[in-house]
Amino acid sequence: MSDLSEEEAEEEAEAYLGEYDGERNSEGERHGRGKAELPNGDTYEGEYEHSLRNGQGTYRFKTGAYYVGEYLQNKKHGHGTFYYPDGSKYEGSWVDDQRHGYGEYTYANGDTYAGEWFNDNRHGQGTYIYKDTGSMYVGGWVNGIQEGEAELIHLNHRYRGKFLNGTPVGRGKYIFDIGCEQHGEYIQSEEDKGEEEEEEEEPSSLAAPKWKATEITKLIQWMPNVEKAPSPSEGPPAAAAEAAAADGAVKETAADEKNKTQTNEGTDESAEHRDDEPSLHKVSSEVFSPTKDAEEEDEEIRKEGNEEGEEYQGTAHLEDEEESEEAE
Questions:
Q1: Most confident by average pLDDT, 96-100, 174-178, 224-228
Q2: Positive or negative torsion for Cα 87, 122, 78, 76
Q3: 113 has which bridge partners?
Q4: Which of 151, 82, 150, 87 is nearest to 120 (CA)?
Q5: Structural domain includes residue 238
Q6: Same-domain status, 124 and 214
C-alpha cells in the first residue's frame, strides 16, 4: 500500500504526463491549449480538458509518425489524418483510437483504398486501386479481406462475381471492352498443377483459382442511330395538297399582277414608279378626252367619203361597158 500523500500523487501523475506548458483551470489541471513533452519522447500540442487530450491537436511520435485531428479523452476520435513512418497515410473517421467509418488510405507502394472501416480494418464497401497495374477492386470487404459481390476491373476487361477470402468463387463473368462476355464458374480444384487445365485464366495477381467458361456471347457491334430527315417533297398528303394549293394561288396572283402591270405600262409609262395614283383614273381621262373624240369623228367622215367615191366610179365604169356592147 502506497504511503504517498495526495500532493505527491499529483506530482507523480504530472511527471507521468511529462512536461507541460499551457493553460490550466482553477484546479491546476491542464485545460485549454498547451504543449506537452511526454516521458517516452512523444509530443502533443493542442487542446486539453481536465488534463486529457480533448479537441483538436497534433500528436508526434518519436518514430516519425504523427496524427493531426480530433481527440476525445486522450483517444483519436472524430476526423483526423495519420501519417505513418513508411510514408503511408490514412485520412478519415476515427472512433476510440481506431479507424472506423469512412476513410481513405494511401499505402507506401502507391496503392489506395477508399471506403468503409470497422475496428481498424477495411470492412463494408470500398474501392482498392493497384498502382502498378491500374486494376481496381470495387466491392465488399470483411475484416480487411475481399469478400462478397464485387468487380475486378482491368485495362480492357473486367470480372464480375463473388469473392471469398480474397479470391473469386462460384459463378461470374468476364466483360470485355470489345463487346462480348464470357460466362463461367471458378472452381476450387485439388488436381496437380502439371495436369492440363482447360480454358484457365488468371483474373488477378491476388488469386488464381481454376476458371471454367460455359458460354461466350457474340460481339455486339455498335451502330449510330441516325434518323433520316424528311425531304420537303415528302410528308403527309394533306400537307402536300396544302402546299400545292398555296403554290397555285401564288402563281395565279403573280399572273394577275403581271396583266395589271402590262395594262398600266401601255396606258401611261410615267406612272411605272408611282403608287399615289391608281391606273383606273388615268384610263378614264383618256377615254373621255374631247380632242381625241373630234379627231376620230373626222377620220370616220373621210373614210365614208372615200368609200362612196369608189362605189360611184365602179358603177359608172359598168354603165360605159354596157353602152359599148349595145353600140356594137
A1: 96-100
A2: negative
A3: 105, 128
A4: 82
A5: no
A6: yes
Looking at the fold, whether 134 and 214 belong to one and the same domain comes out as: yes
Inside any domain, residue 182: yes
Specify whether 126 is located in the same domain as 213: yes
* Residue 57 resides in a domain: yes
- CA nearest to 98, candidates 76, 66, 124, 65: 76
Closest by CA to 261, choosing from 272, 253, 252, is 272
CA dihedral 194, 199, 205, 209 (to 10 degrees): -70
28 is in which domain, residue-wise? 17-85
For residue 213, which of 197, 191, 195 has the smallest C-alpha distance? Answer: 197
Find all residues with CB under 8 Å of 1, minimum gap 6, and list them.
none
pLDDT of residue 240: 53
The CATH number of residue 42's host domain is: 2.20.110.10
Output phi, psi for 296, to 5 deg.
-65, -35
Question: 72 and 147 share a domain?
Answer: no
Read off the pLDDT band of 8 (50, 70, 90). low
For residue 232, being part of any structural domain is answered with no
Residue that has been written with the C-alpha cell 485520412 in this structure: 91
Cα dist. 328→193, 316, 319, 325 in Å?
158, 19, 15, 5
Tell me how many domains the chain contains: 2
Q: Kindly report the length of the chain.
A: 328
Whether 215 and 163 map to the same domain: the answer is yes
Summarised one tens digit per residue, pLDDT across range 277-324 is: 333 333 333 333 344 444 444 555 455 545 444 444 444 444 444 444
Same domain, yes or no, for 213 and 122?
Answer: yes
Mean pLDDT of 212-239: 66
Which three cell numbers mark 124? 463494408
| Last residue in a domain, options 171, 198, 219 | 219
